[in-house]
Amino acid sequence: ITATDGADLRGARCYSLQGGAISAQTGLLDVPHCVRCSSGITQYLALLQVFLLALFCAQSLGRVFNLTLSVKEGLPAKTIVGDLGAVLSAPSTGFFISESRDSYVFRDLEIDADTGIISTVAGLDRESRDRYEFVAATLTGEMIRVRIEVEDVNDHSPVFPRKEVELGISELSPPGSRFPLEGAADRDEGEFSTRGYRIRESEMEELFHLDFRIGSEKQHSLDLVLNSRVDRETQDYYTLTIEAFDGGIPARTGTVQVDIRILDENDNPPVFNQSEYHSSVREDAPIGSIVSQVLASDRDLGDNSRITYEINRRQSDHNHVFSINETTGFIYLNKPLDFEIQPFHELIVRARDDGAQPEYSSTFVGVKVLNINDNSPTISVLFLSETGEAVVSEAAAVGEYVARISVSDPDLEEHGITVSLEGGDGKFTLKQTDDFLFALCVNSELDREGKDLYELKVQASDSGSPPLSSETLLLLKVSDANDCQPVFEQEVYTVNIAEDAPEGSSLIRTRARDADEGVNSNIRYSILKSHQDGLVAIDLTSGLVTTAAGLDRETQMEVWFLVLAEDGGEPCLSSTATVTVLVEDVNDNEPVFQQQLYNVSIPEHMDAGSCFLQVVATDADSPEFGALLYSLLSDGFDSQESHPLFQIDPHTGELCVSQDIDRDDGTSVHDILIKAEDPGGLSAQTYVHIEIQDLNDNPPVFSPEEYTVSVSSHAPPGTEVVNVIATDQDSGRFGQVTYEIHPGDMSSLFTLDRHTGGLYLYFKTVKLYFISFVSQDGDGLSSARPAEVTINVVQSAEAPAVFLRSRYTFTVPEDAPLGTSVGTVEASSLNATEPVSYRISSGNLHSWFSVHPKSGVINTIKPLDHESQPYALLFLQSYTDTSPIYSTTQVNITITDVNDNAPVFPKRRDTITVSRSTRPGTVLFIAHAHDHDSGANGIVQYHLKSSRSEVFAIDSNLGMVRLNKSLHVLQHQRYNLEILAKDEGKPSLSSTLTLSVNIDHTAADDSLAFETLVYQVEIGEGYRKDSRVIQVRAHRTRGSHTSNSGLTYCLEAETGFPLPPFRIHPKSGWLYLSRNLDFETESRYRFQVLSTSGEASLANVTATAMVTVLVLDVNDNPPVFSSDVYYFTVSEGSSPQGLVGTVRAKDKDSGKNSQLSYILLSDGKYFRINAKTGEIINWVALDREQHSQHSLTVMVTDQGHPRLNATANVHVLVTDINDNTPQFNHLPSNKELNVPICAGVPVGFLVTNMFAKDLDAGENGTVTHSLVTGECETCSLLRRNMSEILNVLVLFQLDQRRMVSSTLRLTVKMETSEPRSSSVRERNHFTL
Fold it and tell me: In this protein, which residues make up the domain named Cadherin (predicted)?
């Protein structure tokens, strides 16, 4: 029983008992078994009671001592360990020990109970017991707790649990695999325990190494690690020694032998001892007979090497004729054999081991069945055709094998077999290739077409007794070889077809036959390549030839091609047939003139019937449709069936004159439309432009022939007197008129402009002149009648102020400020002291100018505009205050242009779309800006402001924008170009057009495009309907050599522009006029042309281009007066009245064709006309009493070629002024009248009639009569009773004595605000 306490138990006591049970808390003993009492036991119990008593007493007194001692193991016996009394405060005389005498304490130690000396009984062994603990008690009750530690010494070597260890390692273990081993135990501790391990055999280090970890003294980790793979079949066993060593010096070691057995894995398949097995067995062998034995071995062990045999039924012996013992490999007969059915059996035997994942191997077993002579020979035929059928090609060469014939017989090895062949007409033979094999060979050439089936009989006989034989019948079919070429039914085919047959029309069916069969007789038809093969097509199987394109007899009257028939053999055989297609003509071609326009000139007055031109048209059709008839179309000839001037031979096309042509009576140009028509009604037209050459058959003619003009006697030299006009109906130099004064006339007083007919004063004139003018043309033909000019010199007592010059010419810029002095005119008067005044009489239509009345300085009073009126023609008058007479001068003012107008584009922005495949150099756009200025100021130059100038370029003069670089390499979607239009003025003015160019990237490389994107053409408005204008052409962007025959063209109007008067030929792209043009109605057309292709291969099948047509003006509009008749009123007077009125005309044409000049054709004596303004001027004083009205004819002419003119009548009514006194026209010059009367006449007697007349009109011409004075008291004045007649009557009775004579004075008065009077004295005498 041991009672212990400690700090860990906090003073609690714990009891333990060796050999029994005791309660650890109460100390109660538990004796589980019955113990037999003996003296020893009794004594023990007594001592135990004493010890326990002392223990309890010590505990109660609390005197407990601890004694700890140590001693090395292995010391000799009697070695003193220690003294129990060493811890006591006083020596003790005796000690009680808690251990019994047979306990381990007294077994190894000796304790002196009296002295307390502890010594060893024998050498101690720490490994047996490393400590001793017991309690000693003194007699005085003191307790000593004793602990003796046994110190270790290196007296033990490491010891493995076993001397030998067997270890199994799988041969499939990978390098690095670990195999745990038990470590070596060393009873020593600390550094004397096991410290490491090593393998003694150095050669084993290639395969193994040790990996160990030392934990506590009793827990070691030791692994044998595999360095490389092992192979049991190479070496299945290894032995190595592992040595363990401790830390002593010298170290003590222990070893263990490790026997390593390499464990087998199933890594080797079974291996047969033969690659093939061959055996033979009689066909009558009983079932179960051993046929053969196969043997296989496996290098593996155990189940991995245990082999099981089986027959591979999937590859052999499907009928289970044989069986095999799966353990021994014996092959047994499982079913009866039949040599005739199968003389040889091939078995695939498979060996399989019993591994978890079994391995397999196979071997071939050939079993030959031995025949017994009980059967007739068996004939087996194997045909060598691809299908294995009884077929031989007729192309088989002599000696070629047809079939392999094997003859089998049980007696084959013992008895010979004879094989024979019957039939075949000698075409086949047998050739023996082996003892039992024969080859059926071709013996001579075969011809399937001659015979396609052979019946052959093969007979085999053995040499048995009796001999047995067998035979087999072979039906051998001769297969076709492609040895026959197709044969056409005809070698040459000829067919006719109309040229207008639509595409796909059937021409002919060609047939070819092939004597071969099968694919060799399948015929395919085709047309051999030629330049005509595109016109026709053929059906591959039927041989039907159809048209593949439109035919044109005129291009090709005959289509010749070869039809090829090919069979389906390899190689194919073929033959050809010639097909000739005769294209029959249809009337599908219009006649074509050699020229679309003939220009011809003929002299006038050609003899009727004279032919001057032959037009030639051709018709590509055959003569049936190509015979042409010519005719003149009644185009504007009053619907007559024949032309009034020309005729044409209907067969030859000769154009002849039908009657005399006078160029001067009609038009000088004739445009004739000639039609050529074929018998089918197709026709073509051509224009013949005939110019009638002028003959000098017309002399110049003056119109008018008489001129009456007036000129002031004071007119200075250089004054224009008259302008005579002669015209010549001829043209050219024949119509150029020059003027001369008739010799002998007053030529020295005048000068004549020979070209204009203007007559000018050379000296002052004082009298009336009559001058005769003659004119002649450029060929010297003179006018038949001269022009007679009467020049009235108007005399005046007072001389007018006369201009120093008859004409003045000035220039002023249009931007001149108001008040600018243009120039100065000057006139002089005979009276130097009398001032001269000036005024503008005509030409100042816009009131732009004024003249200073005293200085004669002409100034501007309104802004000028060169663009609306580039010049002004003013007539100025000079006069004095005392004289009503004036003189006239002509002032020409040129208004020069300044650069005040910038170029103007029709619109400021425009957009076009361009395909990326557009070729460089293509015109994309035409920019046009108009500048209203003239000269250099109106010349426009074009430039590109954009930085994209490397991609685009512009013509500086024409404004054409061209593509300068390919768009393929550029990725821009849009370009914005700024086009600058700049004039050449100084300083220059400009404007800008923004052009957006969109790039179409969808378009592919091979597409359709026009040659240019913009076409611009100018055409005169005089072109007739159906005239050609321009040809547009489209083409493919790739492969320019490709025919463009499949293109069609059409027009499309553009929004914002009028409908174009054009039509387009859908095939050629020529534009024609569809109606006559009129510049005055529309001068510009813009529209689109579209080209469409039928080729589906093109990326875009439609192309678009822009066409701009500028209509040029021709002089086709004569001037038109605003009125056919003009009425003006002017007062008579002693001086000219100046401006009478203005006639105005307009011309719808433009440019020079609309510039007008006015000419006064009559009454040049009193009136003149401003040639530029149409102002009519009275320049000679008018007298109503002489001419109460004047009728003038005014002609206006344009400046076109030929000149066109118009005339208008002008009636000038002269109004009256009271410038005449009443006159007694019946009186003598002394204005006295003597009237005798008789005396005595009654009252109321009529003495006389008096009448007075006044030349004025109206009230100015109404007169009254009165008696002013008189000596006759008997007479009275009676007022007029009718008209201007005055009756004088006697009022009183006359007295003869008182009145001898009486004088009457009669006064006549006019009823006017300014009466004028005239008196007459009447003296009458009478006789008393």
Answer: 95-160, 161-272, 273-379, 384-488, 489-593, 594-702, 703-803, 804-905, 906-1010, 1011-1121, 1122-1224
